Amino acid sequence: MIPFRRAALAVARRELRRERRRGTVAWVTIPFGVVALLLVPLAVGTEQVLLRRIGPGLYWVVVLLFGVLVAVGDHDGRSQRDATALLGIDPVAELTGRALAATLLLLGFELATGVAAVVLYDLPVVGLPQLVVVMVLVAAGLGLLGTVAGAVAGAGPGAALVPLLVAPLAVPLLLGATQTLDGFVQGRSTISWILMMIVAVTVSAVVVVVAAAPLQEGR
Amino acid sequence: MEPLVRLDALRVDVGSTPILRDLDLVVESGETVGLFGANGAGKTTVLRVVATLRRPSAGTARVLGVDVASDARFEVRRRIGYVGHLPGLYPDLTLAENLGFAAEVLGLPADRVGEVLAQVGLAGAADRLASACSHGMQRRAEFARQLLVEPELLLLDEPHSALDVDAVDLVEGLVARVVERGGGAILVSHDRDRVAKLADRCVELVDGRLR
To answer: What is the ipTM of this complex?
Structure first.
């Protein structure tokens, strides 16, 4: 059997290389996310107090909705899946590599749209270490969920509906991120929300491990 | 010594439609078997079962000493080379990147990629995107991947499809290389004459059964 770590890292590098070549995240998803953040002040007005109040929540909604598209990614055709499987890659390693690549892309997306949100909504940047933890948890959780959902859908006709299926599952991440950020600003304890997010990410990781072989083999 | 491939009363159904029925086939080490038949006879399904990519509905399929329905199939996949109808290349990666991924997974030195691409006449196209290559070039790249992987069991589906005369020689060389090392091959085609030239024996598949 191919060593797990080597296989997962090779898959992650492959997916990042493909994304760099396509440029979907950099040239489509991030600009659209920023545009979505920009449209809100046009709709509700530019009152600074209001934007500061709703800004963090809006930011995480944008991360969730657009991030799902990043996380699900493209689906391989059968011939590519066969070729990868016959290299002897463990299905769990394959999905782990994909989830790792999705997590890194999501972190890039969060960072780019986060800067836009801070500028557009005049948000205070507080609790930076905790903020980094939240961003990593959201990226990892969405990356794992999106990867599983992508494997479920395969290249079938239902693939277009996958983002709609992932979004509800990511609600704990959205709640946790929003409440944690709000807690920083209000000076409340955020540990329970961070713990909830850790649980959500752990459950998603367990789903990847348990479902990898049936999903990869069943398509 | 156990044969490379042993199919016993193999049956594969898709829904209620039988694709393969009561199929028995043995491939020994050092043997090349040609499997021919009309479109829809079930040739590709046989290859996918042997490649451990499809489970039988009934009967047994043992490949390289393991049952393809068991979890041990993951252990032997690395030793199986399969070139299907469609190339398994990622269109948004170059040929070198596609093969480089395989080399990285298998822990092979990166310079092996250039060597095998040169062996199939694609040294000058290494940095070309797979999507920018002709079907024949992609097939050549698939053969290069097999040279990289060095499988014990080689499975080729319509091996001569989309290939020019030079590339046909590549197929023969690849099969000979695998067989010389004690491996075996199954070549599937609708064209008996072409496969017969490479195979030690040929069997015909008609409506999911061996004739």
So the answer is: 0.90
Size of interface A-B (CB pairs under 8 A): 79
Pairing label, strands B66-67, B58-63:
antiparallel
Q: Residue B61 and residue B163: Cα distance in Å, rounded?
A: 31
pTM of the model: 0.91
Residue A216 pLDDT > 80, yes or no?
no
Please tell me the distance from the alpha carbon of residue B2 to that of residue A16, in angstroms, as a whole number.
42
- B93 interfacial to chain A (CB closer than 8 Å): yes
B5-210 to CATH, choices 3.30.420.10, 3.40.1440.60, 3.30.160.100, 3.40.50.300: 3.40.50.300
Cβ neighbours of B132 in A, within 8 Å: none
B86 contacts on A by Cβ (under 8 Å): 77-79
CA distances from A205 to A38, A68, A106, A177 (A): 34, 16, 16, 18
- CA pair distance B208, B187, nearest whole angstrom: 16
B7 three-class SS: strand
